[in-house]
Amino acid sequence: MDNSKLNGQKTYEYVFHYFSEQILSGKLKLNDKIPTEREIADKLGVSRNSIREVMHMLEITGLIECMQGSGNYVRCDPMEYMLKSVNMVMALMEIDASEIFNIRIGYEYAAVRLAIETAKPEELEEMRLILQKMDEPMSSKESAKLDAEFHHKLVSASHNRMLILYNSMLYNLMDQFIENFRTKILKNKMRAELLRRSHWALYHALTEKDLQAAMNAFDKHYRIVQDQLDKMMQKES
Question: What's the rounded Cα separation, in Å, for the pair 74 and 55?
Answer without folding.
Answer: 11
